Amino acid sequence: MLTVGQLARIFNVTAKTIRHYDAVGLFMPQKVGGDNLYRYYSAEQLPELRRILFLRSMGLSIEVIRELKQNGTLHQAEKLKVILSEHAASIQEEIDIKLKHLASVKHMVDHISNSGGINIEPRIVRKEGFTVVGMEWNRKISAGEIQQMWEHFLTREHELLPYNLEPEHSYGICIPGPDGDFSYIAGLRTDGKRVPQGMQFITVPPQQYAVFTHFGSVSRIGETMELIYRKWLPLHGLEPTSGIDFELYDERFAGADNEKSQLDLYIPISNG
């Protein structure tokens, strides 16, 4: 027979842990000494204790393990395998979430480290007025986010293709509104004479722009815009002006989440 101390040594746990498992009815001794009340365990109990300790190390509660023991699952390999597989999937989900958080933190470190030193040279262009027809997003009235609206627009893009004046080009038009609000239209450049039901059109007036190229996921366009207004425009002595800014998507764009994607950001600037 084995004592509490021997079990503690075999499994590298404290004697207090073994006694606690007995007290809560999870792992009881085969016999208790009549005179000294010492707990004694048989060698046949060792596999059960190993499984209990393993399940505890995996985060399962004593209550759950006790229930597994009571219904016989603790000693049935196939049933226990199913439970462990489900727990493994849960752990993997937690790991995936942590990895996403880690990637975000690393990206922010890179952003903080690089934002002061990168110098992107803009192109200065004068663009004549043009019309875009597409689907509109507005935070006050639209469900979802801009990316979901883009996905919806792409299912209807074919309705505009016969009238598209710039093949391989798509536009994301940002229209400033009152109180700092804005609307956004995802669409194609047309003559504006045909507007399918559920779509809108916007005529962008003639304007001078500073054109910057955004690299990577569209989810980080905001970071590029921050650098444009905080760093790159002042660096080149350019003064932004109120007006419509827009995104131009062409053959360089490989997808919303693709880190190799490129798109151009047109920022309105004063003529001076």
Labels describing this entry:
single chain, alpha+beta, elongated, 37% helix, Multidrug-efflux Transporter 1 Regulator Bmrr, Chain A, 8-stranded antiparallel beta sheet, Multidrug-efflux Transporter Regulator, Chain: A, Domain 2, 7 helices, 11 strands, 272 residues, 23% strand, 2 domains, 3-stranded antiparallel beta sheet
How does the helix and strand content classify structurally?
A: alpha+beta
The radius of gyration is 32 Å
By DSSP, the count of extended strands is 11
CATH homology-level superfamily of the largest domain: Regulatory factor, effector binding domain
Query: How many separate domains?
Result: 2
Report the CATH architecture of the largest domain: Alpha-Beta Barrel
* Strand coverage percent: 15-25%
Instruction: Calculate the mean pLDDT score and round it.
Output: 88
Residue stretches low in confidence (pLDDT < 50, at least 5 long) are: none
Overview of the molecule:
The protein has two domains: 2-75, Multidrug-efflux Transporter Regulator, Chain: A, Domain 2; 123-268, Multidrug-efflux Transporter 1 Regulator Bmrr, Chain A, CATH 3.20.80.10. The chain has helices spanning 4-11, 15-23, 46-57, 62-70, 77-114, 146-154, 221-235, and strands at residues 2-3, 31-32, 39-41, 123-127, 130-138, 170-176, 182-190, 200-204, 207-215, 245-249, 262-268. Strand 6 and strand 7 (182-190) form a beta hairpin. Helix 1 crosses helix 2 (15-23). With 272 residues, it is an alpha+beta fold. It has seven helices and eleven strands. It is elongated, with a radius of gyration of 32 Å.
